[in-house]
């Protein structure tokens, strides 16, 4: 059990540097305990420039979906370690009338993928093969996802939403301290996995305030602006991806790109006390795991015990251990594996599952699952939460998986490819880079979506919008969202306080 204090992105602007309100007349109100508040609408993202783009779009009359599309493309420019067009993600949304939905634009395994593709002749995992290089890459889903989201719910023209990111890439951005440090930290890996001088490398270490111009990325975004989906999955950009595959022994083909489709899915819904939880279904493990944790919590008096009481911490840990065991065994892409969703969320099942929790004893790990969780946290995923003045809410989490994904930047196109294939169970019982193990449910199969911990979530209270939240953090995403909800619901914290306090994983 470890104590962490990482970032959760709530609607109410808990990541202050990337926070803006829109389109109120006056400046947003800031409070050390409440965070940043606005009277009309809000955009929260991991980077102030991306947030500003979302604000501008809503001030032009765009809705939350327009802003989300614009923010996603902007993050691909200003936050390249995780913001992307070469990865995938999930969107959970709630319309002003209360209707909720979700969009799955998670990456898919190429048609040539096979269950043992990362194993040697002795059926042992080849170190790094699912993490670095073109072979680690799943078919990207972000662009198709953004096009579908806009086509169904957007108000403004698609080209208008992509234009700000083109300007950022073409004119250059000033690096934050964090982005300069990341470029320097990953310099050697970026050199080793690229055959040309990529724009994010230079002779001297990057410094805060340095300008980064990304002309090739700008051209890719121009093609997406002008041609929509075809600007990425066909034509010049697709050809450049295929050249990169050939150079790096990757297996994505033109047919893989053309065949990719984001999928509209029914969101998961459940209750914790007086809160209605709306979250992402499989192939995200987040929604099921989050609801299991919350439902399992209902039999314990957390409110009576208090936030840092030993009983509270002990039970949270025991609940999470059982939920992650279920995750490893039962969860995967529902289009390929019969995920027992209803059974996993059944009240009787959960009551029995949690009934052996002893307040005085730690359950032996051997009695719960095999495998060791060694890697606790990562920050290569990014999340943004948006609410517009119409009352629509959007919660989107996207990722490249590792920082800068596979570390491969597509020559001539200026964006990084993901290394999402590592999120499959590349061998039963073998942990991925986040220490998560899996089984047949998440085995590699052609055109299958890999399991994810991303947990974009929306919460209602008394049938009204209450919270929009999500986070980065690899395998800890689920436990972060779970504890943030408890912090507000059971321990009386404000949104900002719920994020500021330490969490356990």
Tell how many strands the DSSP assignment holds: 18
Radius of gyration based on Cα positions: 22 Å
Helix content: 25-40%
**Backbone shape:** globular
Note the gap between the termini: 6 Å
The low-confidence parts are 1-26, 370-378
How would a textbook summarize the main sheet?
A: 7 strands, antiparallel
Structural class: alpha+beta
Features:
disordered N terminus; alpha+beta; seven-stranded antiparallel beta sheet; 34% helix; 505 residues; single chain; five-stranded antiparallel beta sheet; globular
Outline of the structure:
The chain is an alpha+beta fold and 505 residues long. It contains 17 helices and 18 strands. A hairpin with a 5-residue loop joins strand 7 (88-94) and strand 8 (100-105).
């Amino acid at each position: 059990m470890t104590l962490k204090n990482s970032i959760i992105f709530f609607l109410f602007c808990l990541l202050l540097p990337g926070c803006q309100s829109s389109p109120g007349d006056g400046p947003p109100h800031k409070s050390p305990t409440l965070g940043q508040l606005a009277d009309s609408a809000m955009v929260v993202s991991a980077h102030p420039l991306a947030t500003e783009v979302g604000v501008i779009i809503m001030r032009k009359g765009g809705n939350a979906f327009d802003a989300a599309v614009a923010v996603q493309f902007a993050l691909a420019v200003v936050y390249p370690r995780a913001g992307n067009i070469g990865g995938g993600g999930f969107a959970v949304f709630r319309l002003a009338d209360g209707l909720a939905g979700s969009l799955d634009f998670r990456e898919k395994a190429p048609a040539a993928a096979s269950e043992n593709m990362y194993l040697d002749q002795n059926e042992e995992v080849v170190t790094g093969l699912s993490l670095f290089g073109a072979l680690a890459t799943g078919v990207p889903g972000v662009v198709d996802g953004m096009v579908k989201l806009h086509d169904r719910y957007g108000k403004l023209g698609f080209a208008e939403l992509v234009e700000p990111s083109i300007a950022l890439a073409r004119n250059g951005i000033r690096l934050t301290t964090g982005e300069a440090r990341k470029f320097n930290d990953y310099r050697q890996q970026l050199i080793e996995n690229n055959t040309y001088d990529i724009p994010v490398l230079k002779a001297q270490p990057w410094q805060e305030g340095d300008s980064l111009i990304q002309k090739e990325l700008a051209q890719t975004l121009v093609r997406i602006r002008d041609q929509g989906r075809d600007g990425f999955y066909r034509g010049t950009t697709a050809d450049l991806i295929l050249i990169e595959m050939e150079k790096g022994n990757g297996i994505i083909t033109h047919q893989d790109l053309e065949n990719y489709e984001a999928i509209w899915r029914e969101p998961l819904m459940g209750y914790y006390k007086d809160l209605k939880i709306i979250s992402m279904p499989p192939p995200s493990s987040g929604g099921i795991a989050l609801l299991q944790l919350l439902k399992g919590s209902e039999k314990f008096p957390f409110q009576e015990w208090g936030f840092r009481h030993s009983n509270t911490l002990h039970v949270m840990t025991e609940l999470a251990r059982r939920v992650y065991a279920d995750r490893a065994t039962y969860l995967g892409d529902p289009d390929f594996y019969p995920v027992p969703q209803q059974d996993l969320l059944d009240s009787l099942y959960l009551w029995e599952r949690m009934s052996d929790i002893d307040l005085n004893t730690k359950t032996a790990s051997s009695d719960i699952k095999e495998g060791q969780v060694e890697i606790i946290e990562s920050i290569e995923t990014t999340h943004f939460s948006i609410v517009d003045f119409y009352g629509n809410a959007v919660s989107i989490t996207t990722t490249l998986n590792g920082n800068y994904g596979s570390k491969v930047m597509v020559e001539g196109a200026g964006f990084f490819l993901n290394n999402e294939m590592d999120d499959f169970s590349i061998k039963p019982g073998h942990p991925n880079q986040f220490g998560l193990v899996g089984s047949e449910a998440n085995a590699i199969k052609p055109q299958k979506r890999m399991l994810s911990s991303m947990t974009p979530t929306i919460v209602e209270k008394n049938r009204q919008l209450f919270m929009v939240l999500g986070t980065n953090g690899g395998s800890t995403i689920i436990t972060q969202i779970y504890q943030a909800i408890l912090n507000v619901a059971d321990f009386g914290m404000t949104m900002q306080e719920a994020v500021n306090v330490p969490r356990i994983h």
